[in-house]
Specification:
Layout: H1 24-34, H2 46-63, E1 66-74, E2 84-85, H3 99-104, E3 114-118, E4 123-125, E5 154-155, H4 157-166, E6 174-176, E7 191-195, E8 199-200, E9 205-206, E10 209-217, H5 229-242, H6 250-266, E11 272-276, E12 281-285, E13 294-302, H7 305-308, H8 312-332, H9 347-365
Antiparallel strand pairs: 1-13, 2-12, 3-7, 4-5, 4-6, 8-9, 10-13, 11-12
Helix pairs in contact: 1-2, 1-8, 2-8, 5-6, 8-9
Length: about 375
């Protein structure tokens, strides 16, 4: 699509939670306009823009761009001496299924998390079309008003198909309304679309787990499920304060709790965990052996790509990378005199992009997008 084409205002009506940036092409257009196009030439190929966006997403997902999820598993899924494949807990990742089966087959997992009905596109007439123009078609006699189609009149997809089937040249007399795409490939989809939260429909693969931050082992047998030391301490602390702060206090509770945690580590009564993000394997030490339990892991999972490209940091970093690419191209042709006496200087654009890139990376690395603020502060 040419950026010289004047877009309707609706194409730019965007908010943080209802962004018009939903595909690589649209984000690339915003970057080009930020750099001054089409008023000036920007010597960049679209593949370079898309590469800059990809590099921004890659870097962003190292330090941010994730959601907190809770996964429940059966210890029988643990592969001895290897670990537990956490990504396989996402049901649609079952091996042996084709991409079509992952999306459509009911065997692949639970019902979709949510559904969205995508609107069908509308068409606007660019000029007045008299009713006599359609008199040769009996099928259109009841569709077209007696005064014909007026300029800027809106028609739906069904009526547009009738018009273009009757005469294909009519397509040039209508302008398709701005249609928000669904995928990063800018493919238009209509009807009811079902989504599973664990699947990234643009990458066509399940979402990857970034890190595991907590593991809890469930138990359904033995007296420790009700009469544990932790439960007894909590009851003592509650009754002590409710009776007027007699005896057991919160400081004693923390002291004993720290002792119990140390004892668990010393005697390996609580399993330690190690997660490898590359292989997606979670190792438990000691590993489950001749025992069955249900476990709960708290983990961070990468956001779908369609959500990541809406991030403002992605736009700013991709713009900085585009400046670096553009500046390096211009430095190769420096010294060329332009009509009117001007000259090309890419060094300033290059240094500007490098400076912005460094600041953005520093902001991200130092925790500019921390998602878990402290819940309690002791003064």
């Amino acid at each position: 699509m040419s950026l010289c084409q004047v877009e309707p205002i609706s194409a730019f009506m965007s908010t943080n939670l209802n962004s018009k940036i939903e595909c690589y092409q649209r984000l690339g257009e915003r970057i080009l306009r930020t750099l001054g196009y089409p008023m000036i030439n920007v010597e960049l190929h679209y593949d370079q823009l898309h590469e800059a966006i990809s590099m921004a997403v890659d870097f962003f997902t190292v330090y941010s761009g994730y959601t907190k999820e809770y996964l429940i598993f059966d210890s029988r899924l643990y592969d001895g001496n290897k670990g537990l494949r956490l990504d396989l807990l996402f049901t649609v990742a079952n091996s042996g299924y084709t991409p079509s089966e992952k999306l459509n087959d009911e065997r692949t997992g639970p019902q979709p998390d949510y559904e969205i009905t995508l609107p069908t596109p509308l068409y606007v007439s660019l000029s007045t079309i008299p009713s006599s123009y359609f008199s040769a078609s009996s099928a259109l006699s009841g569709v077209v008003p007696s005064d014909g189609i007026t300029s800027m009149q809106i028609i739906d997809q069904t009526t547009y198909n009738l018009f273009t089937t009757f005469r294909s040249s009519l397509s040039s007399l209508f302008q398709k309304s701005y249609q928000k795409p669904f995928t990063v490939q800018c493919e238009e989809k209509t009807g009811v679309q079902s989504f599973n939260n664990m699947f990234d429909y643009d990458i066509m693969d399940y979402r990857k787990i970034v890190d595991v931050v907590a593991f809890e082992e469930g138990s359904t047998t033995g007296v420790n499920t009700l009469f544990s030391v932790e439960q007894t301490m909590a009851q003592q602390s509650y009754h002590a304060y409710s009776l007027g702060n007699y005896g057991f206090d919160i400081l004693s509770w923390h002291t004993v709790k720290d002792f119990i945690d140390t004892r668990e580590k010393m005697f390996a009564t609580r399993r330690d965990m190690y997660f490898d993000a590359r292989t997606q394997y979670l190792r438990l030490i000691p590993q489950p052996k001749n025992t069955q339990f249900y476990g709960l892991v708290t983990c961070y999972v990468e956001k779908p790509l369609r959500d990541l490209i809406k991030e403002k940091w992605i736009l700013e970093y991709a713009t900085a990378m585009s400046k670096i690419m553009w500046g390096r191209i211009l430095t190769k042709i420096s010294g060329v005199t332009l009509p009117g006496g001007g000259s090309i200087d890419g060094s300033s654009i290059l240094s500007e992009g490098l400076g912005e890139k460094k600041e953005l990376e520093q902001f991200l690395i130092e925790g500019g997008f921390s998602t878990d603020p402290p819940l309690m502060l002791v003064m």
